[in-house]
Specification:
775 residues; alpha+beta; five-stranded antiparallel beta sheet; 22 helices; 33% helix; 19% strand; elongated
Length: 775
């Protein structure tokens, strides 16, 4: 009784071998279809992959037939096998068989692993070690099921060199998972742990093949496969050497390994075809960009229908040179956003009723405090429709839109959308937030655009954050932009001209619809292109990992060609259906996009159904003309029955000045009839004079020249009447008269100044501004 209790206690409570729990595993990254994308070696420099969940049937049959036919009938020790081994060894005069069961072999492997972990020499093989293995085998059989023991054995068995375990051997020798191995491959891996050194080139490889073939014949005798299968299996050659594992997504593997340190088999959502296509395309463009001083490319492709990441290029560094930081995962690193946030501001303003797609936004010389944004072409258009400003990525209208919307409000919306990099106070970003004054990651920005596309297609359906792992729990995403605003935003982005093609792509029936946006950071350090078709959202970043500028970098010429090449490589898909239920129609003026109010020729435009847009046109004025309709008149110079009333499209003077340069059909206000000029100030509410510089919010800094003298400032104004004369006064001192071109060069000292401008009709404009410096 005492002996039985002692044995029971030993089997139940004695500690298990540490090697069963304290293993260092390599990390595998698998594609959606189970293909291997990459792997990192274990910390102890062994190719030891995480255990398989179950043994494949072919390997299971081969292993039992070769190593332990009575595995399911013995308790860990097979007395008959030991007796048979002793008889054989005695007859041969040497040790030819040890009679070990699979469980005893597992015990030996665990003991050897324990010694290796403690940096000790291999344990001696003698009677005492055999006895220890037998006792350990009994314990293992008591504590584990037979299936668990087989998995433990297959996971600890040596397969030559530093390859340990069935999963690692299958990938290293045959380039596929264990469940996809053939009968010949399964038989080879069944016999190899018995003599793992035989796999290496040399005369023993023939012996290894003979062992494999004998096992194949035995399997055939058991009717596991046909005669034809046997003949084909015998023809399969042995692998020459372990294969190099693929490195198709090394940066994704490193990132996921850091995020999920306890997971050693990472089943990703990556599509193998899309990943290979992306790799080939970025490799081709890498050489082109390197000639322009751009040495790094990153790319993310998201299936916005399933919210899964299907391609991920963390960093394509030119020729993998170390000076270009090839190991840095740029997808996850914050970079200056350039203009890539403009569509989000546009969509939010549509949704909140701040504007309609065709509402005019001023595009004139602008200063806000000390900040003076410029358009990429350094030109001014007077005013542009909001959707035109977005499609052509005009900076001045975007800055004006952000000022009207509110920097803090926009920052909060971006954070709610998923931008975790906006951690500074809103005032720190200022109006530059919309032009690259903030940083964002390619991962987060592409995810935001993916949800924008999903929202345009799915409406109020619950949105999710895109994920990288197939078994990853989907995270809910708060819906910030509703379907109507999202769809209209993407419609505006469809009109962006493709690189080198202008809008000719519309003439090709095979071209797919893509809504896309580019961005280029200040200082020419980052170039972006993010776009969506009916199924996928693709984000591309190019630049230099170290932040060095490149003279010719731009989102349009550097990043966009990569985006369109990959979209062309993917299956073409249809664009979203118009979500009529998420839109409503309003009547707006054809020329300025604001509510008509019976003051203009009206057209119908769609806005989000949630919008409360209520801005009546500010650019139409009721004027009165004489009978010939050549001159303006008023009640003090003409009788009412001789007047004709008309509604006239009139822009503010500065906007009108630049608008006329781009719109030859613009009709300026007719001049006043000569006898109506007197007393205009009492009847005309128009201010025909407007300053271009300085603006109302200007703070002027005037630098010192090399000779130590302060530079001179140029003050600019416009008048509706091109023939008008303007009289200039600065700080109540007359400084001159201007005609046609109304500019005055003046010397200004630091402090507050008052500028006054008067025309012959008595219209006066006054403005105070500050010159920065020591007063």
């Amino acid at each position: 009784m005492v002996i039985a209790v002692t044995i029971f206690s030993a089997l139940s409570f004695a500690p298990l071998p540490p090697a069963l729990q304290q293993q260092s595993y390599a990390t595998l990254l698998l594609a959606r279809d189970g293909s291997l994308l990459g792997a990192t070696i274990a910390a102890d420099q062994q190719w030891r992959f995480a255990p398989v969940e179950s043994l494949p049937d072919k390997y299971h049959k081969a292993l039992l037939l070769f190593e332990d036919q009575y595995f399911y009938r013995h308790p860990g020790i097979n007395p008959l096998a030991i007796a048979r081994a002793l008889r054989g060894n005695f007859s041969a005069g040497t040790v030819t068989s040890g009679g070990s069961t699979i469980t005893m072999q597992l015990a030996r492997l665990l003991r050897q692993e324990n010694y290796r972990q403690q940096d000790k020499n291999k344990p001696a093989r003698n009677l005492w070690s055999k006895t220890a293995e037998a006792l350990r085998a009994l314990q293992l059989e008591w504590r584990f099921t037979k299936e668990e023991l087989l998995i433990h054995y297959a996971s600890h068995a040596p397969f030559g060199g530093n390859i340990v375990g069935l999963r690692a051997a299958a990938w290293r020798y045959f380039g596929r998972p264990p469940e996809n191995l053939s009968w010949a491959e399964s038989a080879l891996l069944a016999v190899l742990p018995n003599s793992p050194a035989m796999i290496h080139p040399g005369r023993q490889r023939e012996k290894l093949k003979q062992k494999r073939d004998r096992l194949l014949h035995r399997l055939h005798q058991r009717n596991y496969f046909s005669d034809l299968d046997l003949r084909l299996a015998l023809l399969e050659p042995l692998p020459e050497k372990p294969q190099s594992l693929p490195q198709l997504a090394p940066h994704l593997l490193a990132t996921l390994k850091q995020q999920y340190p306890s997971q050693f088999v990472l089943g990703s959502s990556i599509d193998l075809f899309a990943q290979r296509s992306a790799q080939q395309i970025v490799a081709r463009h890498s050489a082109r960009l390197a000639n322009e001083g751009v040495n790094n490319i990153a790319l993310v492709l998201i299936d916005h229908e399933k919210m899964e990441t299907v391609a991920y290029i963390g960093n394509e560094a030119w020729q993998q040179q170390q000076r270009y930081a090839p190991n840095l995962d740029i997808v996850q690193r914050p970079r200056s956003t350039g203009s890539i946030l403009k569509p989000l501001l546009y969509g939010l303003m549509l949704q909140d009723g701040e504007l309609a797609p065709t509402s005019l936004i001023a595009d004139i010389p602008t200063q806000f405090g000390g900040y003076s944004p410029k358009n990429y072409d350094r030109s001014f258009r007077g005013a542009v429709p909001a959707q035109f400003a977005l499609a052509h990525s005009l900076n001045i209208p975007a800055v004006r839109m952000l000022r009207d919307y509110g920097i803090g409000k926009f920052q909060q919306k971006l954070q709610a959308m998923g931008m975790s990099t906006l951690f500074r106070p809103a005032d720190d970003y200022g109006l530059t937030l919309i032009l690259g004054g903030a940083e964002g990651t390619l991962w987060e920005l592409t995810s935001i655009y993916a949800r924008l596309a999903a929202g345009a297609r799915d409406g109020d359906k619950q949105q999710f954050m895109p994920h990288l792992l197939l078994n990853e729990k989907s995270q809910f995403a708060k819906t910030i932009m509703k379907q109507g605003a999202a769809w209209l935003t993407l419609q505006a982005l469809i009109d962006v001209a493709r690189p080198g093609n202008d809008n000719y792509w519309r003439d090709f029936s095979g071209s797919q619809t893509i809504a896309w946006k580019t961005g280029t950071s200040y200082g020419l350090r980052d170039a972006w292109a993010i776009g969506s078709n009916g199924r996928y959202t693709l984000g591309v970043w190019v630049g230099n990992a170290g932040g060095e500028p490149a003279s010719f970098i731009s989102g349009q010429s550097s990043a966009a060609p990569i985006l369109f090449d990959l979209f062309d490589a993917l299956p073409s898909v249809n664009w979203f259906n118009k979500p009529a239920q998420a839109l409503k129609t309003i009547s707006v003026c054809a020329d300025d996009g604001y509510l008509a109010g019976n003051q203009c020729a009206a057209i119908d435009k769609e806005i989000p159904i949630t919008s409360h847009f209520d801005k009546v046109t500010p650019n139409h004025r009721r004027i009165h003309l004489d009978q010939a309709q050549q001159f303006r008149v008023h009640a003090r110079c003409e009788s009412i029955n001789k007047m004709s009333a008309q509604d006239w499209f009139v822009l503010p003077p500065v906007q009108e000045f630049y608008w006329r340069q781009h719109h030859s059909d613009y009709k300026t206000l007719p001049p006043w009839r000569g006898d109506c000029v007197a007393g205009l100030l009492q009847v005309d509410e128009d201010q025909p004079i407007e300053l271009i510089y300085p603006n109302e919010e200007s703070r002027i800094y005037i630098p010192m020249d090399l000779d130590g003298k302060r530079s001179r400032a140029i003050l600019k104004a416009v008048h509706r009447n091109p023939a008008a004369q303007l009289y200039w006064h600065l700080d109540d001192e007359f400084i001159g008269i201007t005609k046609v071109f109304h500019e005055r060069e003046v010397a200004l000292e630091p402090g507050v100044h008052k500028l006054s401008i008067v025309d012959k009709q008595g219209y006066r404009l006054e403005r105070r501004f500050r010159v920065i410096g020591k007063e």
